[in-house]
Amino acid sequence: MLGEYRIQGRRATEIAADVERAVADGSLQPGEALPPLRELAADLGVNPNTVAAAYRLLRDRGVIETGGRKGSKIRPRPATTYRDQVSLTVPPGVRNLAAGNPDPALLPPLGAALAAAGAAADREPVLYGHPVADPGLIELAGAAFRADGVPDGSLAVTAGALDAIDRTLAVLLRPGDQVAVEDPGWASVIDLVAAHGLRPLPMALDDAGPRPAALAAALAAGARAVIVTSRAQNPTGAAVTAGRAAELRTVLARHPEVLLLEDDHGHGITELPFHSIGLGPDRQPATAHWLVIRSAAKAFGPDLRLGVAAGDPQTIDRLLGRQRLDTGWVSHLLQRTAAELWRTHGAAPAGVPAAYRERRDALLAALAAQGIRAHGASGLNVWVPVPEETAAVVGLLQHGWSVLPGARFRMQSPPGLRITVAPLDPAQAPRLAADLAAVLGTGAAASRAV
Length: 450
Known about the structure:
Elements lengths: L11 H14 L11 H8 L3 H13 L3 E3 L5 E3 L20 E2 L14 H13 L11 H13 L7 E4 L2 H12 L5 E6 L3 H9 L3 E8 L2 E2 L1 H9 L2 E7 L12 H11 L6 E5 L25 E7 L1 H4 L6 E5 L1 H13 L6 H14 L6 H18 L11 E5 L3 H10 L2 E2 L1 E2 L10 E5 L8 H12 L10
Parallel strand pairs: 3-13, 5-6, 5-8, 8-9, 9-10
Antiparallel strand pairs: 1-2, 4-11, 6-7, 10-11, 12-15, 14-15
């Protein structure tokens, strides 16, 4: 089962440390199965409860994953190694549609906003003890939340959407808890859940967001938290509709103790309206603990590491309490810069949602003309189901296109490709679609659900 390697140790901490060392030096490889509890206990001459405790430690640290009667095995990668760390090499002359970045040409100029933020800092330097949130930014964010039916009584400024999710999971969940995540979904969220020692439960989705039956199944299985992307879902482009939000809210209402995190990073870059699955028309939350999170990365630039979260008072208070223990606050230079950009351009520069919609629609239409079904209701990406990812990625690379394999985003969902349309000229869409059709072959891109 473990080849030549033999696990050592007499106590749970010693056994867990030995396995971690073996994983670090390569003696134990990703995917290798660990011995059953009683078998390892007999080999080591210890009580099976000792081995069980060691396996719990390893699971909580993200070193192994457990599958009930299927046993335990080394995780495919350490929990601290995120999926985007290993990037595809894009040869010269190949069009990069894999990066997931917004189009730099659609980002606002930063000079004036940075100068205004700097001048404000000169007039009023931010020192220890200063309020953590910039009043101007809070006023703008609060107004935007209110306009979308989100109560803005409790707000927090974070270093982006993932930072808000990270801190909230850390203060409200414990290792071993289960978290419902979209499948396919944002790779960083899936990895972050594992890094906290939490267990991700996949939720299937379609163009309208998570399927109600999938959410119900995850909650019935014991999910303590649910993470949903409101719009511009990565990688599929799904956007929660009003009807789907109502269906999901009905499911959530049966589990009011569950933590709900709604990631609305698409705020500003998509023309589709925001529909909360946790807040109804009466603005009453379906769950006791909830956050709606918006970030500036896609509208103003990825280097503007800033987001604003609205939530129930207890969740916001615990999030800010965790923030005070490490970074303390998000730089007011960034906060004031974002506020100035928001005052000048709105949630995004004029024409941005229409530009991204044009690029998505052009590619979706070109793929449909080739008989290839794809998904892209909103945002920067289009998801294309394929029979086999590696061959499709390599084939497109040979035709001059770099795209991402769906394996980075999937848990149990069928294979696919993520194509970032942000840098794609709509006039190039027919050639890309024809090249993909050639790679897949006639009839290879049969219709499949996300």
